[in-house]
Each structure stands twice: as C-alpha cells, then as structure tokens.
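ESCALATION

Customer reports they have been waiting on this structure for their group meeting. Please prioritize. Original submission:
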Amino acid sequence: MSTNVYTGFPYPLGATWDGNGVNFAIYADNATGIDLCLYDNVKDETETIKIKMYERSHQVWHAYIPDLKPGQLYGYRASGPYEPANGLRYNANKLLIDPYAKAIAGNIDWHNSIFGYEVGHPDEDLSFSAADSAPYIPKSVVIDPNFDWEDDKPLRIPYHESVIYEAHVKGFTKTNPDIPENIRGTYAAVAHPVTIKYLKDLGITTIELMPVHHFVSDGHLKEKGLDNYWGYNTIGFFAPDVRYSSSGVLGDQVKEFKQMVKDLHKQGIEVILDVVYNHTAEGNQMGPTLSFKGVDNSAYYRLVEDNKRYYNDYTGTGNTINAMLPNVLRLVMDSLRYWILDMHVDGFRFDLASTLARELHAVNQLSSFFEIIYQDPTISQVKLIAEPWDIGEGGYQVGKFPPGWAEWNGMYRDCMRDYWRGADSMLAEFAERITGSSDLYKNDYRRPTASINFITAHDGFTLNDLVSYNEKHNDANGEDNNDGESNNRSWNCGAEGATDDPIILELRQRQKRNLLTTLFLSQGVPMLVSGDEISKTQNGNNNAYCQDNEISWINWDKQDKELLKFTQNLIKIRKSHPTFCRRHWFQGQPIKGINDIAWFLPEGMELSDENWNTDCAKSLAVYLNGGGINTRGPKGERIVDDNFYIIFNAHHEPLTYKLPPEKYGKEWTKILDTAKNETDDNETFKPGEEINIDARSVVLLKHPLLHHK
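Update from on-call: job pushed to the front of the queue and completed.
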C-alpha cells in the first residue's frame, strides 16, 4: 500500500479514483486536524496506515494517495474541541464514515465505543470517551465509477402518464419462488426478468423504491431482536445500502444498483428513490458518533440556539439536518445530482420534505432548498415528489409546495377512506379530490398531476388490512401496541381480521375494488403500494417499520390472483383513456354544447348548490366529456377520447340510477362493476334508462367517441 501523500484537490468531495490513485476531500470547518485511515479488510480493528491530512482549502481537507485502487477501505478521525454546550463534539477516538462515501462495507455493530461520551457516566454526553470505535464502524469504500450504460437515457415519462408503484427492495422479492434464492431481496432480484414481467403485466410505469441510501438499524431495535426494515435512518447519502447487494461489499453494490436501473429502463420502467435528507442516523445528544456528528456537528445539524448541546427535532428522530447552511445544501444537491447523473435514477420522493424547507422555525416556501433546486439544470428536470409535512409547528404543508413539485396528497387519502367507509362527508370534497384537488394546486399554476393520489402507503395498514381491521395490532413491535397511528374507524366489514365468512370476505373484496377503482379513475398521479394488488396482509400491523420478516414481506404463495387481474385491467383502462389522466383542469365549460364535466344525482338530475353542501350524501355520478381533454399530441393534434359516466355508491343499500338525457350519449356500455368483479361486462343502456347499482360499488359506463360524433 502506498504511503506517499500529495496535496490533491478540495473537489470533488469524497474519495475519487482517477486511474492512478485516489483523491480524498472532506468538509470539516471547525476541525483542528483530520486523519485518513486506510484498512486492508472489512473486519480490521485497527487501521493499516494512518495519514495526517495537512492540506486545507477553505473548510475542506484534502490529500492525494497514488497507487490506491477501487475497493480500498478507509475512514476518518477528526480532531478538535469536545464542547457539547457549544455544539462541538470532536473525538479522534471515533472512526468516521465519509459523508460522501459512494459505498459502505458492512453495518454498525452496536457497542458503547461508538458513542462520543462514556455510556452510563453521570454527566452523560458531557463526558468524553477514550474507547476506539473502529472495530464496530463499517468502512467507507473507494469505488470504480466506470460502468457500461450502453445507450441508457432518462425515460422522462410525463406525470400524467405515470403509475407509481411503491416497493421495498427486500420485501418485494424476498419470498418470490420464481427468483433464484441467492439473489432474492436484492437489487438483482428487482431487475430479474420475473420481476420485470410482473411489473409490466401490472401496468406500472415507475417503481418508487423505499430508502436504499445506506442506513443504520437502531440500537434499541436490535436489543429487542428487531431491525430497521423501512430504512428511514440514513448515514450514507451517496451509498446504495449493502444489505441489498447480492454481489459483494467493495463497490459491487454500486454496479449491481446501476445494472438494476439499466435493466428496468430497457423495459420502460422508471426508478425513483424515497430519500431521507431531513435527518441522519446519529440521533440527538445521546446518539452515536458515526459520521457528521464527529466531522463537524454544528455545521450539519440544527442546534438549540441558547444551548447547542441539544438538537432541534422536527422529524421525531432526534435531529434535523440544517439545510440553511451552504455546506449542507451542497451535500444534498451533490447527492441528488450523483444519483441522477451517475446512478441514472429518474426522480425522488422526499421524506418529511417540510423539514428541508424550514428557515429557522417557519416552513418557508421560498427557502434556500427550493431556490437552489429550481435553478439546478439537472435536479429540476426529474420527478420531485414531496411528503409535505413534518412533526413541527406549521409542518403540514399539503398544497403549498412550489411549481415543479408533486405532493403526496394526504387529503385525498383521508377523503377517499372516509367516503367508502360511510363516514359523514360532503360530496364537494369528494368531487375535488377525484378531479385533481384544484383547491390545493390550481391557484399556484400547478396541474392535476401535482397530486400524488394514494389510498395506502408503506406507513399504515395495507389495503387488505385497511378494510379488515378496525384496530391496529402492533404487538410484535414490542411497544404494547402503543406505536403507530390509532385507527378506530369501522369499515363495517364484519369480524376483526381473518374470517371464513363468505359474506364478510366478499364485502372486503368489494371495498378493495372500490378503493382501487377510485384511485385509478381519479385525476392526478396514482400510487399503488406493492402487494395491495394481491391482498397482502400484515395481520393488522400498521407500523411494520421494524419487522424485517414475514410480517412485512410479500407472501407470493398466497397472492390474490382475482384482485391482481382486476387491478391489471383497471390500470389498462386508465392508461388507454386520456380522460382519466388529463394534463389540464376541468373548465366546466361546454364542448360542442356539453360541459367537459357534469355531476348527477340518482334521479338523473344535475347536482345543485344545495346538494354539494350535503354533509352525509353517499352517492353521485360524474360525466366526463372525452372531447374536452384540452390536450395536444406531439404533432399538435387535438387528443380526444370516449365519454364516460362513473357512478359511485357508498350506501349500504342498492340504488337505482337514471342515466342522463340523450345529449350526453346515445348508448352506454358497462365496462366495470366492482360489485361483480368485472371489467368487461359489455351490458348496454339507453339514455334515461334506469340501472341498478349495488350497495358499496362503482360502475363505469363508456360512450364511444365514434357514436358521439
């Protein structure tokens, strides 16, 4: 191993191999010294060589080591004041992960030495630990950035054509018997032909992977025999997590991830990442010293102004990244650009995105974070999706993100759940939500596609459990069922949990079809959670963040093939008809004498203002004029479609609907009925004819454009 040390360069940050050696650069404003530690093996307890970095440009320490090659293991030790009350927590006894590491070999081994203070000391974190943490800290890895992407390019699927599928790398593939056992639960499994065929047959366009940035499994979970399954506890913002690698740990995980993206792209499937830039895995003042805390605590975290020993916590995890600071903004932007340019991903979903927008204690729509993304020619061009809330005051920001952003629409989720479980709710809100939530987005010059519509997400009940349980059952989490959001919302679907009663089972199946149908016929961008299409159950656990086991993994041997077929056909209907995925808002204006949208009561009359304000109405129909899409094709041609009539009945009893007059359509064909589990009924009806709508069901009628002409 070379011992020659040259000045090197302050940029790019991280470890960069140029074919002849490696340049190391690390930002540490308040450090008085940085040691680069090189290792021969992942399990080495002491460094093979320790190199003092003398060169410093501005706040960046840097050095160049000739002859080092990809696969080299390394870490840092930072010297400086240990003054927790002033926000400084330097301790050179702690080996630190490079904040810019492109790969990380291994995982944290929880031991008292990984804390900067003496665990159990009466002064707690004000004490100082002399124990060496190197044996328990994973090593950073120098990678080879070269990869044959062939002709891979960004897919740039427009939002209005997108169908998002939220999936967990491991949980989605771990038990699939058609995937080779040695790669199940890995990036390679997601790219396997069996997986890709499944996704293509389902009809999704975009897979949204739950966190793959290298993360830490919490110590308190390990003590209980549990694990951090979801991965919302990042320590490496550039490194694909080694847990999902089937090929190795010395940079092999990077190539495997790239191959996954490349293979999915070849089949027309985008990859977007669920990213967690709002906090890190180091927790509060009592948390471990793994990377940022030891590199430059006060330059990365939001600290309490009058006592910098403590951390501002807007995330519920103990700390909050300080996106107001230039070096933190640079870290986030460098990370995003890396995943776009080097890893070829197509976009991001930002966990607790309101946290990143905070200027001091307020959530400021024009914060530095938004401004820098808006002007960045790379980041601004990919899919940017916000989880528009955090736990701080004023953190619920649904509808308030700037143009260019889409948002998880929590109001859509709540409204649709309330409607189908029979809760008192006004039709006006239901109509707003299924037409794209114009009340949230239209005034900011955003489009219906700003709304990411979802019924369920990873956090909460699965679709099957949503209609099968009135209460959460999180006992396996070891918190006496006190964790997770309380439900207490009856779906009137009979017995709690598993049952053999055919009537109850059919009602639950119908409610699943109702919710899926509403989702995919709504304007906006639908997001389906992996497994919901095959009735995945977590046995009532609505907070399975710590269940890296059969509770969370999809059970492919028990897939609901009938619901899968229904969902496949439902997505096909959506993708075949631009009426359901409009780029522009409904105008409520006539197209050839007929409005582009109209709302009807069971009696066949259009809704009045009084009807809209009815608190507990449970049924309505909507007419969609396929000639009023207001969209142009690639050659400027006007896009038109069939006309549709959708009847929603959330009543517990059947209703008779009178179809609208002839001007709306001369003949209607039923193409979907959730009560009969059909998507190809083909029964026809005349204008003014009555049609029986079963209790708790949706019926979709089509009037062909050819007849309308």
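Sent to customer with the following note: The chain has three domains: 14-141, 161-275+324-578, 587-708.
Escalation resolved.
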